[in-house]
Amino acid sequence: VQLVESGGRPVQAGDSLTLSCVGTGRTFNLDAFGWFRQAPGEEREFVAAINWRGDNTYYGDSVKGRFTISKDNAPNTVTLQMNNLKPEDTGVYYCASHLGVLVLRSGSADYWGRGTQVSVSS
Length: 122
Fold this sequence. Notes:
Blueprint: E1 2-6, E2 10-12, E3 17-24, E4 32-38, E5 45-50, E6 57-59, E7 67-71, E8 77-82, E9 91-98, H1 101-105, E10 111-112, E11 116-121
Parallel strand pairs: 2-11
Antiparallel strand pairs: 1-3, 3-8, 4-5, 4-9, 5-6, 7-8, 9-10, 9-11
């Protein structure tokens, strides 16, 4: 079972970027998905989460109004649309899943991806 992230790359401040996460190895129909990020020397930070139905979303304060998490039409796929990126958004972005979205939001996950690097320059 794996979560595989993609889409990270260097961008300029103000740019937009879309990250994707695909779950493989089993069906994730009942799983909540989330995104976390970690900058060098800092603790992992909650970014966004979405419940298994896709009708409830949660966001970290620093990304509210700029980032959008959604379930893709493709099976077991979640995307994170990031707009108006700032240098402080730089970090490794990790996808995670758990059967409970509130548990996931707290930072506990059944599965973690290996991460994708996002670098925002000013």
